[in-house]
Amino acid sequence: MQRLVSRIFPFITFSVMILCLGGCNSSHAAQSNLPTGLSIEEYPLKNAPGVEPLTFMPIQGTQQEILAKHQQDRGLSFPDNSFFTNGNAGMSMQLGNDKVEALESSTDIVTDLGTFQKVSVQVSRAGQMIYSIPAGDGSPINTLQGLWAYANHWALEIAHVTEKFSLNNEISLDSVGQVVLDGELLNERYKYEEVFGFQLMNGKPFYFFKRDRQIGISYDNQEVLLGYTQIPHYQCCSGAELNPKRAQNMVSFFAQRDDIWFYVEIGVFK
Protein backbone atom coordinates (compact mmCIF):
# COMPACT_ATOMS: atom_id res chain seq x y z
CA MET A 1 0.00 0.00 0.00
CA GLN A 2 1.33 3.39 -0.91
CA ARG A 3 0.10 6.79 0.15
CA LEU A 4 1.53 9.79 -1.64
CA VAL A 5 2.16 12.86 0.46
CA SER A 6 3.38 16.23 -0.81
CA ARG A 7 5.37 18.02 1.90
CA ILE A 8 7.39 21.22 1.86
CA PHE A 9 10.82 21.09 3.51
CA PRO A 10 13.18 24.03 4.03
CA PHE A 11 14.33 25.34 0.64
CA ILE A 12 12.97 22.45 -1.44
CA THR A 13 9.70 20.67 -2.20
CA PHE A 14 9.38 17.02 -3.12
CA SER A 15 7.03 14.08 -2.76
CA VAL A 16 7.18 11.61 0.12
CA MET A 17 5.84 8.08 -0.04
CA ILE A 18 4.45 6.61 3.19
CA LEU A 19 3.87 2.87 3.39
CA CYS A 20 2.32 1.12 6.37
CA LEU A 21 3.98 -2.12 7.39
CA GLY A 22 1.78 -5.10 8.07
CA GLY A 23 -1.88 -4.28 7.65
CA CYS A 24 -2.87 -1.04 5.89
CA ASN A 25 -5.91 -1.25 3.62
CA SER A 26 -4.88 0.23 0.26
CA SER A 27 -8.48 0.73 -0.87
CA HIS A 28 -9.03 3.14 2.03
CA ALA A 29 -5.69 4.92 1.78
CA ALA A 30 -5.90 8.64 2.50
CA GLN A 31 -3.61 11.63 2.35
CA SER A 32 -1.43 11.66 5.44
CA ASN A 33 1.49 13.50 6.99
CA LEU A 34 4.68 12.00 8.33
CA PRO A 35 4.45 9.77 11.40
CA THR A 36 3.21 11.72 14.40
CA GLY A 37 5.82 14.02 15.86
CA LEU A 38 8.53 13.30 13.27
CA SER A 39 10.15 16.26 11.49
CA ILE A 40 12.59 16.39 8.56
CA GLU A 41 14.76 19.44 7.95
CA GLU A 42 16.76 19.38 4.74
CA TYR A 43 19.43 21.88 3.66
CA PRO A 44 20.76 21.86 0.08
CA LEU A 45 24.53 22.35 -0.12
CA LYS A 46 26.66 24.21 -2.64
CA ASN A 47 28.96 21.20 -3.03
CA ALA A 48 29.98 17.96 -1.34
CA PRO A 49 30.79 18.16 2.39
CA GLY A 50 34.43 18.05 3.45
CA VAL A 51 36.24 16.23 6.25
CA GLU A 52 39.21 16.97 8.50
CA PRO A 53 37.52 19.08 9.75
CA LEU A 54 33.90 18.37 8.87
CA THR A 55 32.57 21.29 6.83
CA PHE A 56 29.56 21.94 4.64
CA MET A 57 28.35 25.03 2.77
CA PRO A 58 24.55 25.43 2.67
CA ILE A 59 22.96 27.43 -0.12
CA GLN A 60 21.16 29.50 2.50
CA GLY A 61 22.47 30.25 5.96
CA THR A 62 25.70 28.96 7.47
CA GLN A 63 26.92 25.69 8.94
CA GLN A 64 27.10 27.28 12.39
CA GLU A 65 23.51 28.57 12.22
CA ILE A 66 22.14 25.21 11.11
CA LEU A 67 24.03 23.19 13.73
CA ALA A 68 23.00 25.59 16.48
CA LYS A 69 19.28 25.02 15.85
CA HIS A 70 19.13 21.53 17.41
CA GLN A 71 22.43 21.54 19.29
CA GLN A 72 20.70 20.63 22.55
CA ASP A 73 19.01 17.57 20.97
CA ARG A 74 22.23 16.57 19.23
CA GLY A 75 24.03 16.50 22.57
CA LEU A 76 21.71 13.84 24.03
CA SER A 77 23.73 10.85 22.89
CA PHE A 78 23.21 7.20 23.80
CA PRO A 79 25.36 5.56 26.49
CA ASP A 80 28.20 3.44 25.12
CA ASN A 81 27.23 -0.22 25.60
CA SER A 82 30.26 -1.68 23.79
CA PHE A 83 33.03 -3.78 25.28
CA PHE A 84 35.91 -6.04 24.27
CA THR A 85 36.61 -9.53 25.51
CA ASN A 86 39.52 -11.70 24.33
CA GLY A 87 40.07 -9.17 21.56
CA ASN A 88 36.49 -9.50 20.25
CA ALA A 89 34.02 -6.61 20.07
CA GLY A 90 30.75 -6.92 21.97
CA MET A 91 27.70 -4.97 23.12
CA SER A 92 25.19 -5.54 25.91
CA MET A 93 21.71 -4.29 26.83
CA GLN A 94 19.22 -4.99 29.60
CA LEU A 95 15.91 -6.48 28.41
CA GLY A 96 13.53 -6.90 31.33
CA ASN A 97 15.34 -9.03 33.87
CA ASP A 98 17.70 -10.49 31.25
CA LYS A 99 21.02 -9.31 29.91
CA VAL A 100 21.24 -9.47 26.11
CA GLU A 101 24.73 -9.56 24.60
CA ALA A 102 26.06 -9.49 21.05
CA LEU A 103 29.59 -10.75 20.52
CA GLU A 104 31.64 -10.65 17.33
CA SER A 105 33.87 -13.63 16.57
CA SER A 106 36.22 -14.46 13.70
CA THR A 107 37.62 -17.57 12.05
CA ASP A 108 40.70 -17.79 9.82
CA ILE A 109 40.12 -19.54 6.48
CA VAL A 110 43.27 -20.78 4.73
CA THR A 111 43.20 -21.01 0.92
CA ASP A 112 45.71 -21.15 -1.93
CA LEU A 113 45.38 -17.37 -2.20
CA GLY A 114 46.18 -16.80 1.44
CA THR A 115 44.48 -16.62 4.82
CA PHE A 116 41.15 -14.84 5.06
CA GLN A 117 39.10 -13.89 8.09
CA LYS A 118 35.39 -14.68 8.27
CA VAL A 119 33.31 -12.86 10.86
CA SER A 120 30.06 -13.77 12.61
CA VAL A 121 27.98 -12.30 15.42
CA GLN A 122 26.24 -14.27 18.18
CA VAL A 123 23.44 -12.98 20.40
CA SER A 124 22.84 -14.41 23.86
CA ARG A 125 20.07 -13.76 26.39
CA ALA A 126 20.53 -14.57 30.05
CA GLY A 127 23.73 -16.42 29.12
CA GLN A 128 22.12 -18.65 26.46
CA MET A 129 22.90 -18.15 22.76
CA ILE A 130 19.67 -17.38 20.89
CA TYR A 131 20.90 -16.20 17.48
CA SER A 132 23.92 -16.26 15.17
CA ILE A 133 24.52 -14.53 11.85
CA PRO A 134 27.45 -14.59 9.40
CA ALA A 135 28.89 -11.12 8.79
CA GLY A 136 31.25 -11.68 5.86
CA ASP A 137 34.91 -10.77 5.72
CA GLY A 138 37.04 -9.09 8.34
CA SER A 139 37.81 -5.46 7.51
CA PRO A 140 38.47 -2.02 9.05
CA ILE A 141 34.69 -1.49 9.06
CA ASN A 142 33.06 -2.25 12.39
CA THR A 143 30.97 -5.37 11.96
CA LEU A 144 28.90 -4.86 15.10
CA GLN A 145 27.04 -1.60 14.54
CA GLY A 146 24.49 -1.65 17.34
CA LEU A 147 22.44 -3.63 19.85
CA TRP A 148 19.13 -2.24 21.10
CA ALA A 149 16.40 -3.28 23.53
CA TYR A 150 12.90 -1.80 23.74
CA ALA A 151 9.36 -2.92 24.62
CA ASN A 152 10.46 -6.55 25.11
CA HIS A 153 12.22 -6.56 21.70
CA TRP A 154 15.89 -6.77 20.85
CA ALA A 155 17.44 -5.48 17.64
CA LEU A 156 20.89 -6.04 16.16
CA GLU A 157 22.61 -4.14 13.35
CA ILE A 158 25.65 -5.48 11.53
CA ALA A 159 27.68 -4.42 8.52
CA HIS A 160 28.08 -7.48 6.28
CA VAL A 161 31.36 -6.91 4.43
CA THR A 162 32.52 -8.63 1.25
CA GLU A 163 36.06 -8.26 -0.08
CA LYS A 164 36.20 -7.87 -3.85
CA PHE A 165 39.36 -8.37 -5.89
CA SER A 166 40.00 -6.63 -9.21
CA LEU A 167 42.05 -8.01 -12.09
CA ASN A 168 45.12 -6.15 -10.80
CA ASN A 169 44.58 -7.60 -7.31
CA GLU A 170 43.28 -4.39 -5.79
CA ILE A 171 40.83 -4.97 -2.93
CA SER A 172 37.57 -3.09 -2.46
CA LEU A 173 35.02 -3.53 0.32
CA ASP A 174 31.29 -3.89 -0.23
CA SER A 175 29.38 -3.32 3.02
CA VAL A 176 25.66 -4.06 3.35
CA GLY A 177 23.68 -3.14 6.45
CA GLN A 178 21.53 -5.84 8.01
CA VAL A 179 19.13 -5.48 10.94
CA VAL A 180 17.75 -8.38 12.97
CA LEU A 181 14.64 -7.93 15.11
CA ASP A 182 13.92 -10.70 17.63
CA GLY A 183 15.82 -13.18 15.47
CA GLU A 184 14.21 -12.19 12.14
CA LEU A 185 16.21 -10.43 9.42
CA LEU A 186 14.34 -7.28 8.36
CA ASN A 187 16.16 -7.33 5.01
CA GLU A 188 14.27 -10.51 4.17
CA ARG A 189 10.95 -9.63 5.82
CA TYR A 190 10.53 -6.36 3.89
CA LYS A 191 12.70 -7.19 0.86
CA TYR A 192 15.20 -4.47 1.68
CA GLU A 193 18.45 -4.33 -0.23
CA GLU A 194 19.99 -2.79 2.86
CA VAL A 195 19.04 -1.57 6.36
CA PHE A 196 21.31 0.71 8.37
CA GLY A 197 21.34 3.33 11.10
CA PHE A 198 18.95 1.55 13.48
CA GLN A 199 18.25 3.48 16.65
CA LEU A 200 15.53 4.37 19.09
CA MET A 201 14.13 7.84 18.48
CA ASN A 202 11.98 9.12 21.31
CA GLY A 203 11.73 5.46 22.37
CA LYS A 204 10.46 4.21 18.98
CA PRO A 205 12.41 2.21 16.36
CA PHE A 206 13.95 4.16 13.48
CA TYR A 207 16.20 3.05 10.62
CA PHE A 208 17.22 3.80 7.03
CA PHE A 209 16.46 1.31 4.28
CA LYS A 210 17.05 0.80 0.57
CA ARG A 211 14.59 -1.01 -1.66
CA ASP A 212 14.45 -0.99 -5.47
CA ARG A 213 17.34 1.51 -5.39
CA GLN A 214 15.25 3.97 -3.40
CA ILE A 215 16.35 5.16 0.04
CA GLY A 216 13.91 5.91 2.83
CA ILE A 217 13.35 5.70 6.55
CA SER A 218 11.14 3.66 8.83
CA TYR A 219 9.84 5.21 12.05
CA ASP A 220 7.48 3.43 14.41
CA ASN A 221 6.78 0.86 11.65
CA GLN A 222 5.87 3.42 8.96
CA GLU A 223 8.07 3.75 5.88
CA VAL A 224 8.85 7.10 4.24
CA LEU A 225 10.65 7.28 0.90
CA LEU A 226 12.85 10.36 0.68
CA GLY A 227 14.16 10.11 -2.86
CA TYR A 228 17.86 10.11 -1.96
CA THR A 229 20.31 8.26 -4.18
CA GLN A 230 23.05 8.01 -1.54
CA ILE A 231 23.53 8.37 2.22
CA PRO A 232 27.17 7.85 3.27
CA HIS A 233 27.45 5.28 6.06
CA TYR A 234 29.83 2.62 7.40
CA GLN A 235 32.77 4.73 6.27
CA CYS A 236 35.98 4.44 8.23
CA CYS A 237 38.93 6.69 8.99
CA SER A 238 38.38 10.34 8.07
CA GLY A 239 35.35 9.41 5.94
CA ALA A 240 33.53 8.34 9.11
CA GLU A 241 32.77 12.01 9.76
CA LEU A 242 30.11 11.75 7.04
CA ASN A 243 28.32 8.80 8.69
CA PRO A 244 24.90 9.45 10.27
CA LYS A 245 25.13 10.80 13.83
CA ARG A 246 22.60 9.30 16.27
CA ALA A 247 21.12 11.06 19.29
CA GLN A 248 18.24 10.17 21.60
CA ASN A 249 15.58 12.09 19.67
CA MET A 250 17.20 12.75 16.29
CA VAL A 251 19.70 11.73 13.63
CA SER A 252 21.78 13.97 11.37
CA PHE A 253 23.31 12.86 8.08
CA PHE A 254 24.46 13.82 4.60
CA ALA A 255 22.62 12.68 1.50
CA GLN A 256 22.63 13.01 -2.27
CA ARG A 257 19.65 13.37 -4.56
CA ASP A 258 21.14 12.94 -8.02
CA ASP A 259 23.98 15.52 -8.13
CA ILE A 260 22.78 17.65 -5.20
CA TRP A 261 24.18 17.20 -1.69
CA PHE A 262 22.11 17.87 1.44
CA TYR A 263 22.64 18.10 5.16
CA VAL A 264 19.57 16.60 6.86
CA GLU A 265 18.25 16.39 10.42
CA ILE A 266 15.38 14.07 11.29
CA GLY A 267 13.93 13.98 14.75
CA VAL A 268 11.19 14.36 17.28
CA PHE A 269 12.01 17.94 18.17
CA LYS A 270 10.51 19.58 21.24
Provide tags for this entry:
270 residues; mainly beta; six-stranded antiparallel sheet; five-stranded antiparallel sheet; 3 helices; 6% helix; globular
Structure description:
- There is one protein chain.
- The protein has 270 residues and is mainly beta.
- The chain has one domain.
- The chain is built from three helices and 19 strands.
- The protein has a six-stranded antiparallel beta sheet with strand order 1-2-16-15-14-13, with no helix packed on it. A five-stranded antiparallel beta sheet has the order 4-5-6-7-8, with no helix packed on it.
- It is globular, with a radius of gyration of 20 Å.
- It starts with a strand and ends with a strand.
- The model is unreliable at 1-32 (pLDDT under 50).
Number of domains: 1
Number of strands: 19
Q: Strand share of the residues?
A: over 45%
Helix content: under 10%
Q: Give the spatial strand order of the biggest sheet.
A: 1-2-16-15-14-13
N-to-C span:
31 Å
Cα radius of gyration in angstroms: 20 Å
Shape: globular
pLDDT averaged residue by residue: 85
Please give the largest β-sheet. Answer: 6 strands, antiparallel
Number of contiguous helices: 3
Low-confidence stretches: 1-32
- Class derived from helix and strand content: mainly beta
Question: What is the H/E string?
Answer: EEEHHEEEEEEEEEHEEEEEEE
